[in-house]
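Apologies for my clumsy wording, but are you able to produce some protein sequence, whichever is easiest, and the C-alpha cells describing how it folds?
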Amino acid sequence: MKQVYLINLDNNKHKVDLNGLKEYLEFGWIELETFVLDLESNKQISVKDIITSSKGALPPLPNKTQRAAPTQLNEDGIGRMLSLIYDKITRLEEVTNSEEYILERQLRMEIDGLNEANRILHAENSKLKQEIAELKRLNEKVSKYENQITEDQSKIKNLEENILYLNEKKKEYARKFHQSAGELEKIKDFHGQKEDKEERKLVGSLYEVTNEKEWLIRNDDGVKGPYSFEDIIGFKKLGMLDEDYSIKKESEKRWAKLRDRYEVWAPLQIDEMEGKKTFYIKRADYRAPFYDVVSFDLNEENYKGHCTSLSVGGCFIELPKMPENVQKGEVGEIHFQNSVLATPFSVKFEIVRVSDSRPRGIGLKFIEVSPEVTNTVEAYIETFLKKAA
C-alpha cells in the first residue's frame, strides 16, 4: 500500500512517497555515491537538491537559483541528514502499520460510509417529504371530489323528488283532461261554429243585424223605445206592430215604414251562444234604403217614381199617382241612373205588390238579372252597410 507523508523542508511541507524514498535509500547507494562525488567538486548544495534527486519519488522543488541562503552540507552532514530521514520514514511506517492507525482508518471509512448513508437518507427523506406533500394534495383533491359527489347526490335526490312530484301532477292533469274531454269538444264545436260564422260575415255571405237596444218605433202615440231587434221581432209575431208604423235606429237620421225595413221581414238566421242571440240576414236578400228617382216602362207607358229600397232581388217604388189597371204579375222594365249607383243599369221586373195607401207604390221582383246588375247592386248594399255599421 502506497504511504504518503508530509516532510517539512525549509518551513515548507511536501508530500513524500515514503516507500519510494526508503527504496531509494536502500538500493540507490550507487547513485548516492555519484551524487557525493559531485559534492567534492561543489560543496554548495541544499537539502532540496538531495530530495529532488530521488527519481521523482518526491515532488519537484524549486531549483537552487530560486532559493535563498541554502543550507551548507558536507559529507558527514549529508549522511546524518539521510540517516535522520530514513529513521523518520521507518517510524512513519511503523505508525501507519500500527493497530491504532488501522482502526482509525477503518473508523474514518465507517464515518465516511455513515456520512454517505446520511446523505442518501437525507435525499430519501426529501423525496419522502415530496411524496407526502403530493399525497396530501391528492387527499385534498379526493376530499373535494367526495364533497362534490355528496352535493351531486343531494341534487340527484332533489331531482328524483321533483320528477315524482311532476309525475303526480302529470297524472292529475291527465285525469282532469279526460274528465273535461267532453267539455273541450263542446268548446271546440262552439268556437268552430263561431269562426265559421265570423268567416261568413267577413266574406259577405251574412249580414249581422244589431241586437242592441237602439231601435225606435213611432206611431200616433209618439216615439217608443229603444228596443232590441229581438223585441221588434217579438212584437211583430204578436201582431203588436202595424206596417204603417215608422222605425229607425238611434244612429239613423231618417224614419222608414215598418213594411220597408227588410230586416223585419227577411228570413233570419238566429244563433244563440251562452244565452245571447245573434241575428243574421243573407246579404243577397238584404234590402237597403235607396232614395233616388227611377223610371220604368209598363204597358207601353213610361212612369217615374222614387225608389226607396233596393236589393239584388227587387225594389219598392213610391208613386205620386198610381197608374190605372196596375195589377200583380204584370211585367215591365226599370231604369236606374248613375246618381247613386256606380254603374247605371236596366232590368226587367214583375209586380209582386200594389199599395194604394201611404206609401203609395209597387213592389217589384227583378227577373233575368245579369251578373253585372247583381255586382252593381251588391256593391251599393255593401257600401251602405259599411256606412251604417
